[in-house]
Amino acid sequence: MPVIQFDHFYTYEEISAVVCRLAKDHPALCRTSSIGRTPQGREIQILTITDFESGDPSDRPSLLIHGGIHAHEPASAHGALYTALNLVQEHTPEGLLSRLAFYIVPRLCPDATEFCIATSTR
Predict the structure, then answer these.
(1) 3-state DSSP call for residue 93?
(2) CA distances from residue 94 to 50, 60, 90, 98, 111 in whole angstroms, order as listed
(3) Does the predicted model carry a pTM greater than 0.90?
(4) What percent of the chain is helix, strand and coil (3-state, nearest 5)?
(5) How high is the pLDDT of residue 101?
(6) pLDDT given at position 108
(7) What are the backbone angles phi and psi of residue 66, rounded to the nearest 5°?
C-alpha cells in the first residue's frame, strides 16, 4: 500500500505513481482512467473507488472528491490521495464501498501546479 508523505508537495509523477499503484494492487476496489489531457500533455487522472465485485458503480450513489483545482494549492492532492488510501484500507465486505462509488481526482490543474511547485511562485 502506498504511503502518503507530508514533507513536500507531490509532483505529477508522484501522484501518478500512487494512483497507478492503488489501481494495480486493488483492482477489485480501485480503477484509474483519464478525464482529459492538459495543454502540456498530462493526463488528468481519476480514481473510481468502489466494490466492483458487488455491482456496477453507475448504479450507486456517488461522491466526487477533487484536489488541485487552483495551481497554488498543491497540498490538496494529499487530501484526495489520503482519502483514497483510507477508503481502500478500511474496506470491509458489505461496507461503504459496496453501497457507494467515489470518484477522486487528485489534481485538476497539473500543468500550472507543476510550475508552482518547481518555481515556488504563483
Answers:
(1) coil
(2) 11, 14, 12, 6, 39
(3) yes
(4) 40, 20, 40
(5) 97
(6) 94
(7) -135, 150
Burial of 39 (0-12, 13-18, 19+ CB in 10 A): exposed
Strands 62-66 and 101-105 turn out to be: parallel
* Residue 60 burial by Cβ neighbours in a 10 Å radius (0-12, 13-18, 19+): middle
Q: What is the pLDDT of residue 122?
A: 66
C-alpha angle 91/92/95, rounded to 5°?
90
**Element holding 80 (H helix, E strand):** helix 76-89
How far from the centroid of its chain's Cα atoms is residue 67's Cα? Answer: 8
List, run by run, the mean pLDDT of 10-residue segments along the chain (122 residues): 86 95 96 96 97 94 94 91 96 94 96 91 70
- DSSP state, residue 73: -
